[in-house]
Design goal:
- The complex is a heterodimer of chains A (about 400) and B (about 425).
- Chain A is built from 17 helices and twelve strands.
- By secondary structure, chain A is an alpha/beta fold.
- Chain A has two domains: about 260 residues, 3-Layer(aba) Sandwich (Rossmann fold); about 90 residues, formyl-coa transferase, domain 3 (2-Layer Sandwich), CATH 3.30.1540.10.
- In chain A, α1 packs across α7, α6 packs across α8 and α7 packs across α8.
- With about 425 residues, chain B is an alpha/beta fold.
- In chain B, strands 3-2-1-4-5-6 form a six-stranded parallel β-sheet, with helices on both faces. Chain B has a three-stranded antiparallel β-sheet with strand order 9-10-11. A two-stranded antiparallel sheet of chain B has the order 7-8.
- The longest helix of chain B is centred in the middle third of the chain and has 23 residues.
- The radius of gyration of chain B is 26 Å and the shape is elongated.
- The mean pLDDT of chain B is about 95.
- Classes of the chains: A alpha/beta (about 400), B alpha/beta (about 425).
- At the A-B interface, α2, α6, α7, β6 and α8 of A face α2, α6, α7, β6 and α8 of B.
């Protein structure tokens, strides 16, 4: 029996789409906030049509959407129609929190900018999560998360010295912004509770990303150092790399920092003669000869399964971990123990694994319900949440605003 | 410098005890940014996480770690040796008045010290305690160790980065720590909101491995649905073909992309017209990409278009390219270096970087500014990162210790 969820009673009008907004509102929804996702048939949320689908591809069968929209309600509004926009405004007036991540300025075209929402909802909290913020010369410049990742500088620090910049093949800033969005929204809720005052939250995904690169920013400011691509080399550890293991594209990361860890490492690999050579005596020596060390370590790991390397190292006290792919994540004993993948029964997709948050609030598990089909809650949202009469709802239906 | 006074900020009524190393100190800083009085509780000699570079002027000194600075401003610092009983008594007194504790000890360490959540809660039922560890408090790996490279490996991020013919890569600046700290802050705030409603504290157990896994939008689903293992690579699948995301410029690299299909194809217009306008011989300029599909083109065609983009961008500097891309709304961005960021027109217009005075260094360092703009309760860097034990006297005296008692504790090596 779940008790009361932490955010029960918090009402969220969620205009967000793709990743950055929906990942934030997912956490709010599974912890009890009532999140109404405002969508449209004519231009569905790109995640509704993101691979992979389960079963026949449709707007209601993307597993990715299933992962990012659990426990949300869905209303479909054709925002090209003034009557639909009127319903959207009523939702904004109903909400404690309005969330959106369109290009800067888009909400204003519907009269749904903060200034106008506040006219009917003076205490509203509105969070706009955009690539580069709501103000400034590039506020409305179009781009994708993968490109913003480059603008923020992640790629500059990532890659092999003899090749160009690299970066993870995901829209990484979209994966950073949500956590700051949640923090900002709850802080604003507390401020409102105390003062009655709402506020506007302008979250720039670029600025959020730079929190994750802050040490490099300081290194440039204080030392004039711009950084470079160094593959997996470190100034503080060696061995410090991903090492090839037995099998097809199998790797295990190993990191040896202190002399104590080096002694432990030597024990795990059976203390071969090379490990006792003077070129590997101190941490500074090991870092200086990291390339040679990597080759020797690879000879040892290459004869073993990645899982075995991880286990032997960890049991010996050396930080090590399999470079996990999707299969490894599902088979990882620790993620299984944590029930990281919540298996949710979805009416159309069957059972799908939804990522649980990295945090467990003891005694208060999240309530992870299936993602909604597009427009599944049109009537419920209008009738129960907005108190629209049966007659008026029929009129809205006849006008076709939910199309 | 803005005032150190946090009055008016959302968390200004609260005190946080921050016992974190690198895998959690962003969490405490976020609470500090929001106005909480964050007290970093360091062992005598300082938080071992102060021993991470880079360092100010490369001077390897625990009070000059730029890595530590970046995630420990808006905090005060006391030293306290929790391995000694008198130190634990001092801590229990601090904890009795605290609202939050954030800690990164190995699982069971706080309990072994008699400072576990259950003990502390007995004296302070409102206490909210957040514990951040590599793998979580329980489970088969709970005693395993992980630094950044191991965490990005086991969480799956590393496998998405690098080339197929080479080893997987980590991002060159630690990300697992930041992912853990930021997600811990989100979980802490959700539990805090619950406390506002119920008056009851909570215990929040955070796993760095899961924090990394939560940064991947589809990897686990690709395996679950189609038993496909996502391969890393310089090129990635797009619309049925393989495409690339970065191109050389005259003085570095830019990020751009080919787009095709009914909707996305329109994104090529800005770039196509731009290439035409420069007079370069072009095929991109003559294609209607909204009518192109992955099936209607060969990989060779994709390669040729990318080659054309490559030779086009390599004629210009990153700054020239970005300036023109902004004007034409073309999907092109620089691969920024820190020097580029310092001159970025947007960050400048938004006054993002904040000079922070370090009196001990006699120097001013530019820091990234707030993580979010708050219209009514704007955040700021109110105080620089503390020196080791900088606030021992003011905090312990306020707690009721006399000068004499503090001297005794100091002699005993407790503070």
């Amino acid at each position: 029996m779940a008790g009361q969820l932490p955010l029960e009673g918090v009402k969220v009008a969620d205009f967000s789409w793709a990743y950055a907004g929906p990942i934030a509102t997912k956490q709010l929804a599974i912890f009890g906030a009532q999140v109404v996702k405002i969508e449209t048939h004519s231009r569905p949320d790109s995640v509704r049509i993101a691979l992979p689908f389960i079963g026949k591809p449709s707007r209601n069968s993307s597993a990715v959407f299933g992962n990012f929209a659990p426990s949300k309600l869905s209303i479909s509004l054709n925002l090209n129609m003034p009557e639909a926009v009127a319903v959207a405004r009523r939702l904004a007036a109903w909400a404690d929190v309005v969330v959106e991540n369109f290009s800067a300025g888009q909400m204003a075209t519907w009269g749904l900018d903060y200034a106008r929402i506040r006219e009917s909802n003076p205490g509203v909290i509105m969070l706009s999560s955009s690539q580069q913020g709501q103000t400034g010369p590039t506020a409305s410049h179009p781009g994708l998360g993968g490109m913003l990742q480059a603008l923020a500088g992640f790629n500059h620090f990532t890659g092999y010295p003899d090749r160009g910049p690299r970066g993870p093949s995901i829209p990484y800033p979209d994966m950073i912004a949500p956590w700051f969005s949640i923090v900002a929204i709850i802080a604003a809720l507390e401020h409102r509770q105390r003062t009655g005052e709402g506020q506007y939250l302008d979250l720039s995904q670029l600025e959020a990303s730079l929190q994750f690169l802050a040490p490099a920013v300081l290194d440039y400011s204080a030392n004039g150092r711009a950084g470079e691509r160094r593959a997996n080399a470190s100034d503080e550890a060696a061995p410090h790399n991903a090492y090839r293991c037995r099998g097809d594209d199998r790797w295990c990361a190993i990191s040896v920092r202190s002399d104590e860890e080096w002694r432990a490492f030597r024990g795990v690999v059976g203390d071969p003669a090379w490990a006792g050579e003077p070129r590997f005596a101190s941490l500074a020596d090991r870092i200086e000869h990291a390339g040679e060390l990597d080759e020797l370590v690879s000879e040892w790991t290459g004869e073993r399964e990645a899982e075995e390397v991880m286990r032997l190292m960890q049991e010996g006290g050396v930080p090590a971990g399999v470079v996990a792919n999707g299969r490894d994540l599902h088979q990882d004993p620790q993620l299984r123990h944590r029930e990281h993948f919540a298996m949710v029964d979805h009416p159309r997709m069957g059972t799908i694994p939804v990522d649980a948050p990295a945090f467990r609030i003891l005694g208060t598990p999240p309530d992870i319900q299936p993602s909604p089909s597009l427009g599944q809650h049109n009537e419920m949202v209008c009738r129960e949440l907005l108190q629209i009469s049966p007659e008026e709802y029929q009129t809205l239906l006849d006008q076709g605003i939910f199309s | 410098m803005p005032p150190t006074n946090a009055a008016g900020l959302p968390l200004s009524r609260y005190r946080v005890l921050d016992l974190t190393n690198e895998i959690g100190f962003l969490c405490g800083r976020i609470l500090g940014d929001l106005g909480a009085d964050v007290i970093k509780v360091e062992p005598p000699g300082g938080d071992p996480a102060r021993n991470h570079g880079p360092y100010y002027h490369d001077d390897v000194d625990p009070e000059k770690s730029l890595y530590w600075y970046a995630y420990n401003y808006n905090k005060r610092s006391v030293t306290l040796d929790l391995s000694q009983p008198p130190g634990r008594d001092v801590f229990a007194r601090l904890a009795a008045e605290a609202d939050f504790i954030v800690e990164t000890g190995t699982p069971g360490r706080m309990e072994a010290l008699g400072l576990g959540y259950e003990e502390l809660r007995a004296a302070n039922p409102r206490l909210l305690m957040t514990a951040i560890t590599p793998f979580g408090q329980t489970g088969p790996y709970h005693e395993y160790k992980a630094d950044d490279i191991v965490a990005v490996a086991v969480g799956g991020l590393m496998n998405l980065c690098g080339d197929e013919d080479r080893e997987p890569l980590r991002i060159g600046v630690p990300q697992a720590y930041a992912l853990a700290g930021a997600q811990a802050a989100a979980g802490t705030m959700i539990a805090h909101y619950q406390r506002l409603m119920t008056g009851q504290g909570a215990y929040v157990d955070v796993s760095m491995q899961e924090a990394v896994a939560n940064a991947l939008p589809a990897t686990q689903l690709e395996w679950f649905v189609s038993k496909e293992v996502t391969r890393r690579g310089d090129r990635h699948p797009y619309g049925g073909r393989m495409t690339r995301g970065t191109f050389p410029a005259k003085d570095g690299f830019v990020a751009s992309h080919l787009f095709w299909g009914v909707g996305p194809g329109a994104r090529m217009k800005g770039l196509a017209q731009w290439i035409k306008d420069t007079g370069q011989e072009t095929t991109i300029g003559d294609v209607d990409f909204t009518k192109v599909t992955g099936f209607s083109i060969t990989q060779e065609q994709v390669d040729n278009w990318e080659e054309e983009m490559s030779s086009f961008f390599s004629r210009f500097t990153k700054a020239e390219i970005y300036r023109e891309a902004l004007r034409r709304r073309a999907f092109v961005f620089p691969v920024s270096t820190p020097a580029d960021l310092a001159e970025d027109p947007q960050l400048k217009a938004r006054d993002f970087f904040k000079p922070v005075e370090h009196p001990d260094l006699g120097s001013v360092i530019d820091y990234p500014g707030p993580f979010c703009g708050f219209s009514e309760t704007p955040l700021s860097i109110r105080r620089p990162p503390p020196l080791i034990g900088e606030h021992n006297a003011e905090i312990y005296e306020a707690l009721g210790y006399s000068r004499q008692q503090l001297n005794d504790l100091k002699k005993a090596g407790v503070i």
